Amino acid sequence: MPTLILVRHGRSTANTAGVLAGRTPGVALDERGAAQAAALPGRLAALPLAAAVSSPLQRCRETLEPLLAARPDLPLHIEDRISECDYGDWSGRKLAELSDEPLMTVVQRHPSAAAFPGGESMRAMQARAVDAVREWNTRIEAEHGEHAVYVMCSHGDIIKSLVADALGMHLDLFQRVHADPCSVTAIRYTRLRPYLLRLGDTGDLAGLAPRDPGPDAAAAGDAAVGGGAGAP
User: Fold this and answer.
1) What per-residue confidence (pLDDT) applies to 229?
2) Among 172, 177, 176, 179, which Cα is nearest to 109's?
3) Largest CA distance in the chain
4) CA distance 23 to 199
5) Are 189 and 222 in contact (CB under 8 A)?
């Protein structure tokens, strides 16, 4: 199955201001975020990307703009299910003031029980994102083959929840995962299990390029994703 390159959007004006942006419209990349996005094509240059999938929110689309300009033949697809968590009444509020809300302790320590007032639960957020990735994996493999690589630009909580799913972690542990703005998290999906190849990587990504598994790949099964028992 394909390798998924998850990119968190570059640093945004909301990140700089310490605001929980959520789905608030008009949240753009700040100057550093634009520079991070400009560096993305070079970081991904070694990867034969089959497609780009983006959250509909402005900061994600802006993050992918330099990559799409560098690869005019790369198709872009907008996927609503990888949009930011719907924080409801919390959207647009300062994180500093939200820290005093009793619900914030639940969000941090027992997120599977957290539901935002006027918004969605964190369980629902993870479920829709996982469904989206699984469906895109099937589509990309059908159109481009099992060794295809594609990029998906989304948000911190979405990426963390996808990593938790890939590692077989309960959602209550997902706050232990961290992904910086414009970092890359790579997950290679196989018939039996996913493998986390990179987490929050901000450096060179050439090692993620697919390699010809050779004539013995069928016999090797899942071991074809890398050397060593149980290691990707």
Assistant:
1) 38
2) 172
3) 59
4) 24
5) no
